[in-house]
Design goal:
The protein is α/β, with parallel strands linked by helices. It is 19% helix and 31% strand. It is built from 11 helices and 24 strands. Strands 8, 14, 15, 16, 17, 18, 19, 20, 21, 22, 23 and 24 form a 12-stranded mixed β-sheet that branches. Helix 4 links the parallel strand 6 and strand 7. Helix 2 crosses helix 9 and helix 3 crosses helix 4. The longest helix is centred in the middle third of the chain and has 24 residues. It is globular.
Length: 567
Amino acid sequence: MRVPFARTGASPVPDHAVQHLVRMRDGTRLATDVYLPDGAATEHALPAVLVRLPYDKNSRYVYFDKAARLFTARGYALVVQDVRGKFRSGGRTLPFLREPDDGYDTIDWITHQPWSDGAVGMFGDSYYGFTQWAAVASQHPALRAIVPRVTTVDFNATTALDPLATDTGVGRPVWVEGIEYYAHHWVDQDAYEWEPDRRVRPVIDQYERAFEAIGARSAWFDLLAPRQTDVLHALGRHPFDSRPVPVLHCVGWYDNIGIPHMNDYLALAARPGWDAVQYLWAGAVDHENYRLDHAPVTEDTDHAASDTALDRLLPEYAGPALDFFDVFLKGSRPVTALAKVTWELGHAGWRTATAWPPARSGERTFWLTGPATAAGPLPGGTLAGAPVADDEHAQWAYDPEHLVPSLVADSFSYLRDHPDAAPLAARDDVLAFTGPLLTDPLDLAGPVSLDLHLACTAPVFDVFAKVLDLAPDGTARLVVRGQVSVRGDGAPREVRIECGHTGYRLRAGHRLALLLASSDYPMYLPCSGSEENPWTTLAPKPSTQTLATGGATPSRLTVTVLTPPAG
């Protein structure tokens, strides 16, 4: 059956921008829109903020034609460029590989413009956060500061990691949604929207049908699926080994690549030479800038549909970066004006700190107990303050013909829907555990992890963990999540699941809850349950997972909490 698709090309150049075709060292020309303050071309030189991205830069999706007014009003030139092979830019459509050289050449071009004062910063989300790291690796001396948002220096950290390739036998399940991105955005200059038929097996055929309909395919997708290649980004030197530059890491607690982004920040905050110029902004937002305060969104709060909502969003989106650039590009504000850490405690507003996790934070452990009632609806088993002395066990099934459904169709905009996860707990292939009713708020501020004692009847299996806020009305909303792929011999073993960091208030009357399952489709590829490739298998194998929760093999959930001030 032919797959219907929509193809999107470049929007017109805005009236308030001037397009330049900037020549790279190999002769390829990249389409670059320049926005200047009124009269800037004749008055005085300006610092520039560069954005290099693979999306239609003037679309409603990235809205730089609108955001430009905020940058120019603060006295910056905004330079927005289509990366190589995308929209108006020439060259082959391949991500990552040429970004260091192209970033260097573009910065060099900026410094030779009559409106430039020679200082350049960079800004942007996701892939256009990565292009900032690529430019750092290229070490152009004019690059003075970067603001990477909801991104990571290494996108390999977001896709599959075969547990066979690790010393521990623990890797990552295949994030279909993340790999599918390349099949939509990295085929040729344009973007393609189409809906896979999720019933098709083998799974890889969903994409073969789409490429056949389009008449072209994504070379980068082919590197990742079905071979599951661990693709190394050809950056030359690693950005962290380059000359340090000031960085404002803008992390979303609900960002689907928030774990690797926080790892980037923590690595640099502990790295001599870099540590002094690392700053963190962490908010209760997702990858597409939807906010917990507005979740689930309405027609009036959806910035993808409402002009008023977008106008409200833009100052929140650009404001932290502009304040940062005022310090490190313009020098118009002192360094002391910036907090090292600005973070949001979900449901309780913004805070500042000198480090992350903040002072007065410490670990609190909840022990998984009561497994006899875990295979049922919430509250299920118990998240207790102490482990039990006796050995206890609970089991759940993995049936590739009856997969646990993903809560949202698009986890990049998770908070747009912010769904109730409670119905998942009622399935017999999901375990649930719930903590005590809170009489006082419990403030989470830092990492969350699980240590589970597990055995499985299959040689490879996946575990998906969701940590939830169970409200008095019975609804359960996601706080953090984590997932692992495990390879073993059937013997019990301890498995750690890192669920990332959060800032979140569990309010009085609420309860902490945990769900465990072995599928999450279509967000993640169903496990083959065998040595077969999960992309190409026609017969994935069912399995039974056993969780030990007491005696010599207790399982536990560890959260980081703020302790109330003395007195």
